Every structure is written in structure tokens, then in C-alpha cells.
Amino acid sequence: MGKASSGDTLTKLALIGNFLPRQCGLATFTTDVYDALRDRFPELQVDVYAMDDHPGRYDYPEAVTAAIPQDDLSAYIDTARKIDASGAQAIWVQHEYGIYGGPAGEHLLALLDRTTLPVIVTLHTILEKPSADERRVLEGLLRRSARIIVMAERGRDILQRVYGASPRQIVMIPHGVPDRSLIEPEMLKPRFGWQDREVVLTFGLLAPNKGIETIIEAMPAVIANHPRALYVVLGATHPNLVAQQGERYRDSLKALAVEHGVADNVAFIDGFVEHDELIEYLQAADIYATPYLNPAQITSGTLSYAIGVGKAVVSTPYVHATEILADGHGVLVDFRDSAAFAREINRLLSNERDRTSLSARAYARGRTMIWSRLAEATVAEALVALQAKPRRLAKPRAVKPLSPDLSAVER
Questions:
Q1: Does residue 1 surpass a pLDDT of 60?
Q2: Distance in angstroms (rounded) separating the CA atoms of residues 154 and 177
Q3: Tell me: the pLDDT tens digits for 260-279?
Q4: Comparing C-alpha atoms, which of 255, 344, 338 is closest to residue 291?
Q5: Helices (H), 119-185
Q6: pLDDT for the residue numbered 5
Q7: Contact (Cβ atoms closer than 8 angstroms) between residue 183 and residue 352
Q8: Cα-Cα-Cα-Cα dihedral of 395, 401, 405, 409, to 10°?
Q9: Which of 169, 97, 146, 102 is nearest to 126 (CA)?
Q10: Which end of the chain is least crowded, N or C, by CB within 10 Å?
Q11: Is the pTM of this model over 0.85?
């Protein structure tokens, strides 16, 4: 266990965020964080407080100390008391818009305002043009936090420029990735029936902002050069989208593949994929594609994972992609540019040397991002936070409730 210069030792940590089996990128992240902390620091006790959008629906594992009903303000206040009484020395919050109750998630401030423990917050979305409520809540988090963790340098810039954050308060810790060997895709393709196929993969909860249409529209030009090419769209439809419209969006993508004559070269695998199986899917692909449409997207767990296992990546230039793929670690093409995607996919499929070289560079970058390193870096920041004097926020004034924006959860 690490020690701060004052002699403090971190022995118990409260971790707040979504948690599996809830199906979203943030739940996967928080679960991976928990596992990394326990593996790297077995003497550290981590109490998980899971944000719950459907109380009673999820069968949480023993790791979850308690669930916090998203819209129940009293539950946040009760949780603050539980954390204070638990012996936890610090609180680590995974912050994303749409998972905390109240306008722009202000219920979280009610919890943090009722404990004097040092707080560390990882920001998974940082808005450059926030609403008044979004600004108020994030500024509240900045005032309350000893450390703010961002996963892209652009996040540091936005926090200082838009929100007036102190540069000394901000630390950049990259999104974690699994520690796996670099292996040839051909070794795992038979597991999925992909023998003799050249596989392009996109993974994640299916939603319109993922830009899947761009790759489907690129496939005729890819198939003209590589008739056995297969575009695999892996992952369940986002639960929020299913609640709104069922599987209408997925069906529209299947219809688009038929319309372009590529139905036999596009495969949809509908389901929430468990961690180990996801890694094997990624390792079996020749190319990983993220045709995402939001230029401001500052975090992509799926892109991080692809880099972690050494995939050749073709991506649109959203914030996280421009940083992680910089300096020849991936290929960037413009948003909605199907012709450019087709050109770069064809180039990489046609040139094994280029593809292998790109894969090796990606894997080398991924070695700097493995989960154990994230755990070490965060525990180091928590030890520093133990020396910082926390302060309470004034109770937020009452505001008219707003409908939470759930789109940011689609990582």
C-alpha cells in the first residue's frame, strides 16, 4: 500500500458510479476499475456505491456495498452518512451526465456536500458549451474535489478555459485497457466462424451517434477489392434507445445493408458481450473502426480497448481519437466520409506489412494504458488528496427539474 509524504496510508475507498450488470460503457469502466484496484492493491478495501436507474432490476455482485436510486434525493443523503460511517478515507466518483438525478445531475452534489472526505472525480464527458445547470453542477464538482481526472488533454484545456479550473487540480490518466498478448487475428477467427474472412469490427451499444451507416455505405467499394470482407457490428442496442423505439434503428441498418447489396458482408451480433469474449472478438478482427459522429467525444472505452490489444484502427477525428491515434498510431478520416473509410480499409487489407506495423505501434501505446497503471496513478492521487483539506458546498438552490440527457452514456 502506498503512503503519502505525511505518512497517510489509503486502506479504504468509496467508489461511486454505474456497475455491471447494468449495461453501459460507464458500468463496464467502473467494474474494470474495481477489479484493477483489487488486483493491484489487495489490501485496499473498495466499497462500491452503484447508481441505479431501475431499482430492483439489477442483480448486483457482492462487490456492491449499496445501490443509489438515481432520482431519490434522500438516497444520496443517506449514502453520504453511510460512507462517513464506513471508515472510507476518500471518495472516487465516476461522473457522466445522465446517471445522477436532479437537473444536470445535481443530486450528486447533495451527497458530496454532506461529507468532509476528500473527493476525486473522473470526468467522462466535459462539455465545451454547457447549459446553465450543467455549468453549475460541474463548477460545484470542481469546488468540492481535491483532484479532477481527465482522460484526454483536451479535457484539461476545456476545464481551464471554460470552467476556470486550477491547473494544479487536474490530472490526466488515460482510459484503462486490458493486459493481453498481441496475437494474430487468424488464431481466433475460427472461434467465430470467420475463417478466410477479412474482418472490420465496430463494438459498442448501438445508437445513431456511432455512425455505423458510414461503414455500411463504404462496404461496396471494399468488397470490390476484397470480396470476402466482413463488417461486424458487435453489441446490443442501447437500452435507452430500445425503450424509446424498440429495435427500429438496428432494423434500419440491416435494411441499409440490403439496399447497398452488402447484406452478406455485414454481420450484426446483438447482445451485451462479456469482458473476456469482447477481448477475443477484438483480437480476431483485422481492423477496428470507430466512425463516430460527435467531434467533441472525449472518451471512448471501445477505442481504448482496441488500442490495448493492438488493432489497426480507422476512425473519425473526434477528440479522443485524435489524441490516442496521434503520431502514426492509427488512421483518421473525415466524419461521414464513406469513400475515405473504403480507401483506408482497402489499403490496410491489401498491405499486410502496413497493417502489422500499425498494429504493433498501437499495441505499444496500449502498454502505457493497462488497468494496473491506472490503478497505481489513481491511488497516488488519492494519497495526495488525503492531505488536502476538503470543504463543503453550500446547499444548491432549488431549480426547476429538467429531463436528464442520456446521450452521453453512449460511450
A1: no
A2: 20
A3: 999 999 999 998 888 899 99
A4: 338
A5: 132-144, 153-163
A6: 38
A7: no
A8: 50
A9: 97
A10: N
A11: yes
Q: In 246-296, which residue ranges form alpha helices assigned H by DSSP?
A: 248-259, 275-284
Domains delineated in the chain: 12-176+371-399 (3.40.50.2000), 185-367 (3.40.50.2000)
Adjacent-strand bridge partners of 237: 206
DSSP of 76-87, one letter per residue? HHHHHHHHHHHT
Confidence at residue 254, expressed as pLDDT on a 0 to 100 scale = 98
**pLDDT, position 389:** 54
Q: Three-state SS for 3? A: strand
Cell matching residue 171: 490530472
| The Cα angle at residue 368 between residues 363 and 374, in degrees rounded to 5 | 130
Q: What is the pLDDT of residue 404?
A: 38
* Cell numbers that stand for 192 in this block: 467465430
Q: How confident is the model at residue 286 (pLDDT cuts 50, 70, 90)?
A: very high
pLDDT in tens, 227-257: 999 999 999 998 889 999 999 999 999 999 9
Amino acid at 207: A
Whole-Å CA distances, 115 to 86, 396, 402: 12, 15, 26
How large a percentage of the chain has pLDDT more than 90? 88
Strand locations in 183-301 (E): 198-203, 229-234, 266-269, 287-290
End-to-end CA distance of the chain: 32
Nearest to 141 by CA among 99, 104, 89, 168: 104
